[in-house]
Amino acid sequence: MLGPQVQANVSSRPRLECFLIPPAQLASPIFLYLILFHFTLAHVIFTLATRRLEFRSPLDESPQDASRTWGCTRDRATT
Fold first, then answer.
1. CA separation for the pair 3, 9 (Å, rounded)
2. Residue 76 and residue 10: Cα distance in Å, rounded?
3. Can you give the C-alpha Rg of the chain in angstroms?
4. Residue 70: partners with Cβ closer than 8 Å, 6 or more residues away
5. For residue 60, how many C-alpha atoms fall within 13 Å in the half-sphere facing its CB?
6. Mean pLDDT of 66-74
7. The predicted structure's pLDDT at residue 74
C-alpha cells in the first residue's frame, strides 16, 4: 500500500502533463520533417489552387498577345 505522503499526492483526475508532448519528442527529426513536409505541401496546393497557370507557347499567338503574356512592351517600330 502507498504511504501517507505518496497517497496524498495521488489524484483521481489525470494531470495535464500526461497529455502534452515532451519537448525531446517534439524536437526529434522525424517530427520536424513531418511538419516541414506538411507546410510545403500545403503551400504548393495553395499556390496551384490560387494561381492561373497558362501553358501556351508565345509562338502560337499574335505579337500583341505574346507581349502581353510575357510582360514585354510593344516594339515601337511595328506601330
1. 10
2. 86
3. 31
4. 58
5. 4
6. 53
7. 54
Contacts of 25 (CB under 8 A, 6+ apart): 31
The C-alpha cell at 36 is: 516541414
Cα(24)–Cα(15) distance, rounded to whole angstroms? Answer: 19
Q: What is the pLDDT of residues 26-37, one digit of tens each?
A: 567 778 888 899
Burial of 67 (0-12, 13-18, 19+ CB in 10 A): middle
Give pLDDT, residue 40. Answer: 94
**Tens-place pLDDT, residues 35-52:** 899 999 999 988 888 876
Burial of 77 (0-12, 13-18, 19+ CB in 10 A): exposed
C-alpha 28/C-alpha 18 separation (Å) is 19
- Global model pTM greater than 0.85: no
